[in-house]
Amino acid sequence: MSVSRKRKKELRKLQNQANQLWEAQQVLVGEAASVAREASKQLGHFGREQVKPQVQAGYQQYAAPYVDRGVKASKHLLENNIVPAAGAVVGSALSVWDAANDTRARLASGKGLSMPDAAKYSKKMDKYTKEATKAMSAKLAGRTPQRQGMGAGGVIALILGVAAALGVLYAAWQTLRADDELWVADDPLRAPDA
Description:
mainly alpha
């Protein structure tokens, strides 16, 4: 089956046009990639220069007081409730240990078993309890929690900020994209000929 010269010429012309269109599209894709890279870089700058300070300021203004209040409440609970109770437990344990050692020493010396002196061990228990409470309080007083970096609230705010920025970029892209159906003609509308 042979093709006429005219058709061959038209097919070559069509092929040349298709090649030119392909090259133009490749250039366009390259330009779009460079624009996307630049937009990504600018978004990073925007996040560091605008979003991060706003998120940190919002965290400091709104969330930090509640976090500080929670830290103070936990510290108060630890110092006033847990440490004294733990001191009492440690003091009682040391008192029992002392009583066991005294009994073991009496048995070893041949004096045998006798009723322990409750007042003596009560004094020792009070002494050990106070010492243990003071030691634990001293250890815990030296430890003040250090806040490090951004907390959960800051991360959430940063994510919401990035999502809002992406929403604005998507809206701008939808507005500026080249859809031929969306463009308004330059000619004013005229009535149809009758």
